Amino acid sequence: MYIDLRSVEDYHSFADKGIANCQPKAAAKATRGGDKSVAERKQARGTCAYCGAIVAISGVTKHMAACPERQAAIENAHPGKGGPETLYHLRARDATQGQYWLDLEMPGSGTLRHLDDYLRAIWLECCGHLSEFSIGAWRGDRIPMSKKIGQVFLPGVQLTHIYDFGTSSETLIKVIETREGRATTKRPVALMARNVMPEARCRECERPASWLCMECLIEEDEWGVFCDEHAETHPHEDYGEPVRLVNSPRLGMCGYDGPAEPPY
Ligand SMILES: [Zn+2]
Ligand SMILES: [Zn+2]
Ligand SMILES: [Zn+2]
Ligand SMILES: [Zn+2]
User: Fold this and answer.
1) pTM
2) Which ligand is nearest to the CA of 222?
3) Interval 136-163 mean pLDDT
């Protein structure tokens, strides 16, 4: 069966109908982060990188227009070489459950390589695997990393980014809006907002969990997360110490162990 998944929403609607075969390889793993309903996930919340406010994903655009810290960053942007240009507010979202997302601003002159570097740094990098961008679903038309943001992110276009063709991490990226002006940073990417780290509860005691057991995941296909105390007493040790939970969709895949912090 082949289903063309153009968006996270499509994915959810297929998933809701119980059509499991459409999941990319990496998604066939144990359910990550519990069994929250789709409705709850759609109310996903994130943190504004400028002022620290918690905002619903659906309200990010509105917040950015009103956020005093964001507006100050725009006003203080140093005139660089040349004039103002088009800046792209992009949203990158994991294709598996959509609970991990990043809102990024990039100039039209930035390249996909810059975006790839950023995604690797904040979310994905474990052992230097290959990655690529394509248009459409899983391994659609490949787009060279040298392409400029302004060349590829036309209205309505969604790109798929794949990191690692073995244990794959798949990210969907689309344009939320554009503005004319100057970048707020000399770096090629500015972090605008990201999801609040999904809550995890210890399998033993329901207290907040901060550790993931790789043996539970690999051998039993269970998302075994534990509090400090129960991570200590958990009997599994064939895959080493539990991995610290971090805010990344790569968690639990290959040798990934974070830190899932913004590189800048
Ligand atoms: Zn803000
Ligand atoms: Zn790896
Ligand atoms: Zn516990
Ligand atoms: Zn375990």
Assistant:
1) 0.84
2) 4
3) 91
